[in-house]
UniProtKB/TrEMBL annotation, chain A:
The chain crosses the membrane at residues 48-66, 115-134, 155-185, 205-225, 246-264, 305-327. Keywords: Cell membrane, Membrane, Sugar transport, Transmembrane, Transmembrane helix, Transport. This is Putative multiple-sugar transport system permease YteP. One of its GO terms (biological process) is transmembrane transport. It is found in: Cell membrane.
UniProtKB/TrEMBL annotation, chain B:
It comes from Pseudooctadecabacter jejudonensis. The gene is lipO. It comes from the Bacteria. Keywords: Lipoprotein, Signal. This is Lipoprotein LipO. The keyword Signal applies. Residues 1-22 form the signal peptide. The keyword Transmembrane helix does not apply.
Length: 337, 520
């Protein structure tokens, strides 16, 4: 590989160029079925290294995402682990009827959407703002230190995060209530008050993930053409104007892509953190679809019902991501596909 | 390779076996039989054939168990940790010859009738004289382990002894404040209030936590002080049985009054402000920090905290009788349940069913029961005047329960009949005094609900209603205690909501199943 001129995927560059121009020329001629096959075969023969690199991902998709889809049928069956997915009798939409006749499931769906909406409203802009702020920091050591500090919580397990939150919000020894005490406020038992659950949960999520999430946006900012800033300086723009007129418009496609992905995950509130933080006293605002599924479906072994709820989740998420993608493509010409 | 291992362990086994065992009368098969076993428990995640107890059992019976555990985990949470391994095992498509686990009853009673486990009624009658003799004396327990088709699918772990949890209080604090041990709920309230306001730990701060609990449902159990009921068995939030009628504590008026009083206590600071989130370390933290005043917890483990007297001057944490309710009744709702949903079962692919049931029966024989309870003679205990007595060096090794697990004794993934004598030998004086005190009141304990097995139709109704009902009851329960709503005002709406969620229908199902199972 030392000779830069010799290799693109193991094929001499000149040959690639020739092949490509030949392909263009052939495309214009009338195709025969035979030639399509030959060309496909040739293509694989020439590019097999690239496909070999793709293979692990394909296998991963097949084993962990496509094969399990076979099991989705248990959402429509009276599933017994012993009889297996194939041996259990079909019962149609009974599990879905059970779900939608259950007030607590409906409440869990509402809670999921509400928490996700808050996450989107407050949690999505946070890493963007953070990235823009880092971009304005000039002192290199200070910048690196600050970045490391905000990245750190991402690498801490949810169990420990929950422990920190429970301690921080404790009514007797918690730092929050201690500070409130200095101002003469009565202590609040935050984690048992339904109205406090969402702010604490969303805030914890921002604290944990905003730093790590900013990396993507920092990378996008780094990719902005420096000559734009140079000419802006010549035109007498200040840093604030450069941020609004150059940085943000330049990273807008990245923002939109991240937003679409985020919308696709609306039904996936990080449920392990909910489980660690909620109590029966806060189910009213805290119980999300996944925690409900965990309690009703997995703890009591109703895998079929849990599968039905999971399928419902997936359908909603799919619809949302399709909608967001279409809207984005129409209005900004940026889209995932 | 395997044969060599067997030979080696047999040799090792015979070296430690006393001559009295060597006559072979417990031998099940002349040719050694190998059986696979699944055994998962938080304290011993897989079966270990090197356990000294197992080596002796193998030598005596000729049955060689080989570990084949799927999904081993050490999680201790009530439901998932225990049944997850069983579900994984079943999902893997093959079932070992023997399956031993805690929380196995509902599992085998659901999948046994589907064909996954071998029905045991006839096998016990023909081949298991010791088990049959036990059931002949306890038909109620025989009824309790049966599935809805009338078959037994597992051999249970049968705990021994009466008392589990009791009420505990800092008696040195009582003395410091010149108070008597409370005998009624009213006196108890006054004592807790004095703990809160009169600074019994003497540090000048009102930081005492009068009542605390490691598991918050123990706080709910205090409704029994106002003639309510909380947990009908040693499973929290369980149904209860009273004169052959199934009921639930959380819909009773005594419960309502109890919750109203507990809400008042909570508001006044008589109950740990963090009772719902402090978790399992509450007892350890609050006692060693000299903050906790009273709790409701296990005799054996709680009495051990009196060792703190070496660090905290005068520290004494002693059991007292359940305070009498306003109507004058004293009850201790918690007890050692007569039969646990733990034990072992025979998988449908087992080719040595008769030998396996004989092997299960071995553990109910005199020698087998002693082995399961005390370990190996000469290693963990010696026979003194015909009684097994633990060796002092064994007792000194640390927590005795853990030491016993490590040699393969007291395994609750095994069906056996516990012998309380094993525990009495290492309970400290405070526990024994507490138990003796409770023994002076013969009517303190009430019958436990031993559970029911459902038909598939009943199971469907239970699955549809119970989860939601339980969630709703717990949500309201915590809310009322924390002051989000008033139980007296909300009560009628609460009952109406429960009925709408199918509470009455569920009670009928439970009653039908109960009558079928216990011949009511």
């Amino acid at each position: 590989m030392s000779d830069r001129n010799s290799d693109v995927g193991g094929i001499p560059i000149e040959e690639v160029v020739v092949e490509a121009s030949e392909a263009v020329r052939k495309d214009k001629q009338t195709r025969t079925p035979d030639s399509t096959w030959v060309r496909t075969f040739d293509h694989f023969r020439r590019e097999w290294q690239i496909y070999a690199m793709l293979l692990p991902t394909i296998i991963w998709f097949l084993v962990f995402l496509y094969k399990p889809m076979y099991g989705l049928q248990i959402a429509f069956k009276d599933y017994s682990i012993f009889r297996g997915a194939a041996g259990s009798p079909w019962i149609g939409f009974e599990h879905f009827e059970t779900l939608f006749n259950n007030d607590q499931f409906i409440r869990a769906v509402k809670n999921t959407i509400t928490i996700s909406f808050y996450n989107l409203l407050f949690g999505f802009p946070a890493p963007i703002i953070l990235a823009l702020m880092f971009n304005e920091v000039l002192h290199a050591t200070y910048k690196r230190t600050a970045q490391t500090i905000v990245y750190l919580p991402h690498f801490i397990s949810s169990v420990i995060i929950a422990g920190i939150v429970i301690t921080a919000f404790s009514p007797t020894v918690g730092v929050i209530n201690t500070i409130m005490g200095w101002f003469g406020l009565d202590p609040i038992y935050f984690l048992t008050q339904p109205e406090w659950f969402r702010p604490i949960f969303v805030g914890t999520g921002i604290w944990q993930e905003a730093g790590f999430g900013s990396i993507v946006f920092l990378a996008a900012i780094a990719g902005v053409n420096p000559s734009l800033y140079e000419s802006a300086v010549v035109d007498g723009a200040n840093r604030w104007q450069m941020m609004w007129k150059i940085t943000i418009p330049s990273i807008l496609p990245t923002i939109l892509i991240m937003l679409i992905i985020r919308i696709g995950n609306v039904m996936e509130v990080s449920f392990e953190l909910v489980i660690l933080l909620y109590q029966p006293a806060t189910y009213e605002t805290a119980d999300v679809v996944n925690t409900w599924v965990y309690r009703q479906g997995l703890q009591s072994g109703q895998y079929d019902l849990a599968a039905a709820a999971g399928l419902f989740n997936a359908v909603v998420a799919f619809t949302l991501v399709m909608t967001a993608n279409t809207l984005s493509r129409r209005f900004s010409r940026t889209s995932l596909w | 390779m395997r044969k060599l291992t067997i030979a080696a362990t047999l040799l090792a086994g015979s070296a430690i076996t006393t001559p009295a065992f060597a006559d072979g009368h417990l031998r099940i098969s002349e040719e050694p039989i190998e059986l696979t076993i699944q055994m998962n428990h938080r304290a011993y995640p897989i079966y270990d054939e090197e356990w000294p107890v197992e080596q002796v059992a193998r030598e005596l019976t000729g049955i060689h168990l080989i570990n084949d555990t799927v999904g081993a985990n050490m999680r201790s949470d009530e439901n998932t940790g225990r049944t997850e391994a069983l579900n994984l095992m079943l999902a893997s498509g093959s079932i070992p010859d023997i399956v031993g686990s805690s929380r196995i009853r509902d599992f085998v009673n659901q999948f046994g009738p589907e064909g996954a486990f071998v029905p045991l009624n006839d096998l016990i009658e023909e081949h298991a004289p010791n088990i049959a003799a036990y059931y002949a004396t306890r038909p109620d327990i025989e009824a309790a382990v049966k599935a809805s088709d009338g078959q037994m699918y597992y051999i249970p772990y049968l705990p021994d002894g009466k008392y589990g949890r009791g009420y505990w209080i800092r008696t040195d604090w009582l003395e410091a404040l010149d108070l008597e041990v409370p005998q009624t709920v009213e006196e108890y309230e006054n004592v807790l209030r004095a703990f809160k306001t009169q600074d019994p730990n003497g540090n000048g701060l009102a930081d005492e936590v009068p009542f605390f609990a490691r598991q918050w449902p123990e706080l709910i159990r205090l409704v029994t002080l106002w003639d309510g009921r909380a947990h009908g068995s040693d499973t929290y939030h369980d149904f209860l049985i009273e004169d052959g009628k199934i009921d639930h504590g959380y819909i009773g008026e005594g419960y309502r009054d109890g919750i109203a009083n507990l809400a008042r206590w909570y508001e006044e600071g008589l109950i740990d402000a963090e009772v719902f989130t402090r978790g399992s370390s509450a007892r350890d933290f609050l006692l060693s920090e000299n903050l906790g005043g009273s709790t409701h917890d296990w005799f054996a483990s709680t009495s051990g905290y009196n060792r703190l007297s070496s660090e905290i001057d005068g520290f004494a944490f002693e059991a007292f009788l359940p305070p009498a309710s306003p109507s004058g009744r004293r009850i201790e709702e918690h007890r050692r349940i007569l039969v646990k949903p733990d034990g072992w079962a025979i998988g449908f692919e087992n080719e040595h069913v008769v030998e396996t049931i004989k092997y299960f029966d071995f553990w109910f024989s005199e020698e087998g029961r002693r082995l399961a309870n005390f370990g190996v003679e000469g290693q963990q205990y010696d026979m003194v005047d015909g009684e097994p007595i633990f060796k002092q060096e064994f007792l000194d090794q640390g927590p005795v329960n853990r030491s016993l697990y490590q040699v393969g004794a007291q395994l609750q993934g095994r069906g056996y009949f516990q012998d309380y004598a094993y525990e009495a030998q290492w309970s400290n004086e405070f526990a024994l005094e507490g138990i003796a005190l409770y023994d002076t009141m013969p009517d303190l304990l009430i019958p436990d609900f031993l559970g029911v097995a459902f038909t598939p139709e009943e199971q469907a109704i239970y699955d549809r209603t119970w989860g939601s009902i339980r969630d709703y009851m717990l949500e309201r329960q915590q809310g009322w205690i924390l002051g989000n709503g008033d139980v007296m005002e909300d009560w009628d709406a609460y009952i109406a909501q429960l009925d709408e969620m199918g509470m009455q229908e569920l009670l009928v199902v439970m009653q039908t199943a109960y009558d079928r199972q216990y011949g009511g």
